[in-house]
Amino acid sequence: MLILIISLTHSLPPSLPSTRTAESEKPQEGAEAELQSTQQAVADRQQAAFVVCERMFNALLAWATTRDVRYLLAAQRSLTAVQNQQGDT
Q1: What digits encode the pLDDT tens for the residues 51-88?
Q2: Does this model's pTM top 0.85?
Q3: Where is 64: in which H helix or E strand?
Q4: Using an 8 Å Cβ cutoff, are 72 and 60 in contact?
Q5: What DSSP assignment string belongs to 7-53?
Q6: What whole-number distance in Å separates Cα of residue 3 and Cα of residue 50?
Q7: 3-state secondary structure of 1
Q8: Distance (Å, rounded) from C-alpha 60 to C-alpha 16?
Q9: Where are the domains of the chain?
Q10: pLDDT score, position 62
Q11: Distances (CA, A) of 74 to 7, 34, 35, 58, 89
């Protein structure tokens, strides 16, 4: 999962300085807004992935010290709450 976070971090193109004229500023502004929106979405996904990784790390650490499988199950409890199209879990 850590590799996923790192690959998401490096997948965004760097922002380049604008050399366009004033006539083409409106399309550029739209592109910049879209880029910022995309960057924010990626940052949100990275944060969510980090939270999941941290939760699993803590569960694995607790399981390794106590050998109590309930720690691993508790960390994945959210997966059992997912329903299919018929409403089954």
Answers
A1: 999 999 999 999 999 999 999 999 988 888 888 888 87
A2: no
A3: helix 25-66
A4: yes
A5: HHHHTSPPPPPP---GGGHHHHHHHHHHHHHHHHHHHHHHHHHHHHH
A6: 11
A7: coil
A8: 42
A9: 35-89
A10: 96
A11: 28, 38, 37, 11, 16
Distances (CA, A) of 38 to 44, 54, 77, 87: 10, 24, 30, 32
Q: What's the rounded Cα separation, in Å, for the pair 52 and 48? A: 6
What are the tokens at 44?
């949100």
Closest alpha carbon to 30 in 18, 13, 46: 18
The token pair at 31 is 């592109």
CA dihedral (19, 21, 27, 32) positive or negative: positive
Residues 89/83, Cβ–Cβ less than 8 Å? yes
